[in-house]
Each structure stands twice: as structure tokens, then as C-alpha cells.
Amino acid sequence: MTRYVIKRIAFMLLAIIIVSAATFWMMHSVPGNPLLTRARKNLPKQVLDNYNRKYGLDKPISTQYYLFVKNAIKGDFGESIVYPGMRISDTIKKTAPVSGKLGLIAVLFGFVIGVAFGFIAALNRGKWPDFLVIFIAILGVTIPSFVMASLLQYYFGARLKLLPITYRKANWKSFIMPIIALSFGTVATYARYMRSSVLEVINSDYVLTARAKGVTEMGILFKHILKNAMIPAVTILGPQITGVFAGSFIIEKIFNIPGLGYFLVQAIQGRDYPMIISSTVLFGFLFVISQLVVDIVYGFLDPRIKLAE
Questions:
Q1: Closest-CA residue to 242 (of 230, 260, 255, 267)
Q2: More confident residue, 195 or 227
Q3: Where are the alpha helices (DSSP H) in the chain?
């Protein structure tokens, strides 16, 4: 196990370096200048030179990347271009918890409900609960999260006035609609995966053997069927966790939630190089960490999986 984890950490570092270098090169290869884009007019050459010198844009790309990595190791991601004077590390510390709170609740809600729906549908194959879950899964797959968010805002916010339309820091109800919009597709995904997995496991040899030995039906359902059917669901849980920060920016924009995704959209629009690259590195780091955790969880769910090998 230890050897496997060390090996994976080495690959994680390599992946983060590749992601950061590729993002850095692509952002700087786009024609134009961020300052000119914001100013929308011709600037004196001296002002532009001072600006480029301040952000290191007058140096070769390789030198800029070296300085970025050197400072990033110390926890310094530089200063925002869109918001001069604002440190990116401070912005991440301030906005990441907001996105994390919203996304983790949505992922947890979607995971629990989706697994339960898929489990119930598989045990009632061909009956009305199965058809109901399939219908919900089809809706969750076909309706994008931003459409669901708009529908929720219109009916529950504007017409019925039951929930706040936009985010309010002191009102927990303002999180209800964003969580539902984010988790609706997650529920559908886990329901489909869990239903298929349970139907595959339910007729396995070890389940038939357990029944022949006189194991109770509840014991078979939770100890044998549910545990083994969870492996496909755990597989997609890693990218879902990463999507907590990277995938909720549309919802954050719609509900005006001051999370990391909200600022990332503004950074892309303003070509804020430091903010975009720092956020991309953070998302890449979270993704590889989540994949490592998923692989380790495999070993607990299925003893046949030997991580050391």
C-alpha cells in the first residue's frame, strides 16, 4: 500500500506540472493584451511597459512559468490583473469554502439519493418504482443544470416567492435552489449506475451461495449486494468531488454566489492570467487527489483489489 501511494503521488506531481505548463502556454499564446482589453483604448507606451513589468509579462514565457512555479511552491500565486492589489491566494482562501460548502452538500445529497433510487429501482425491476426512477434519470440527464436553476428561480423564487432568487449570506434558504440544481443531474447519474450495478450483482454466484447458506435477505442486500454494487458509484465520485469547485461556476453565476467559480468566470472574461492558471492548478490537484482516494477506497470495498500489485 505504501509503495503504491508513493508511486501515485509521483504521478500526481507530474500531472500537475503538465497541466500547469499547458495552461500557462495556452493562455499566453492567445493574441492581445489583458490591459488593452480592459481599457478599451490606446494607452501610452510607458504605462503599458510599467504594467507588463509589474506582472512580469515582459519576460519570456519560460521565465514567467519558472517564477510562477517558484512562488506557487511558497503559496504565493501572484496578484490579480482584473482586481489590482488583490492577492490570488487570499481570493482562493475566501471563495473556495463557499464553493466547497455548496458543492459538497450537492454531491452528498446527489450521491445518497441517487444510490438509494438506483437500489430501489433494481429491486423492483419492471414495476412502477423502477419506471419512476428511470423517468427521473432521463430528466436529470437531459435537463442541464443552468436550465433547472432558471426554472427553480422562476417558479419557487419569482412566482411562489418561497425561496430567495439570489444568494444571501445570512439566509440558509438561498442555498436550497443552487443545491437542487447542482444535485439533480448527480442523482440521475448515480441512479442509473447503481441500478445497472445492482442488477449485475444480484445474480452473482456469491449471492446465490449466501442464500443457500441461509443468510437473511437483509444481510444479503446490505453486506453482499450493496457493498459490491457501490464500486461503479465510487468510481465517478472522484470527478464529482472535483466538480464541487470546477463545475459549479455556472450555478454560482446564475445565483450570484461569490464562490471560486464565479471569480473564475470573471477572470476568463478579463484574461486574468494568474487567476486562471492558479485555479486550473488547484482543480488539477483536487482531481488527482480524489482519484487517489477513490483507488484506496476500492481496496476496502472489494478485497480482491490489491493496490500493492
A1: 260
A2: 195
A3: 2-29, 34-39, 45-55, 61-73, 88-123, 128-142, 145-152, 176-201, 205-212, 217-219, 226-235, 237-246, 249-254, 260-269, 273-301
Q: Report the 10 Å Cβ neighbour count for 7.
A: 11
Task: Give the H/E segment covering residue 202.
Answer: none
How many other CB atoms are found less than 10 A from the CB of residue 110? Answer: 24
* pTM of the full structure: 0.76
Q: Which helix (H) or strand (E) holds 42?
A: none
DSSP symbol at 160: S
**Beta-carbon neighbour count of residue 127 at 10 Å?**
11
Q: How far is CA 162 from CA 147, 178, 182, 258, in A?
A: 19, 14, 19, 22
Tens digits of residue pLDDT in 51-105: 778 777 778 888 888 888 888 888 888 888 777 778 888 888 888 888 888 888 8
Largest Cα span, the chain = 85
How far is residue 131's CA from residue 300's CA, in Å, rounded to a whole number? 33
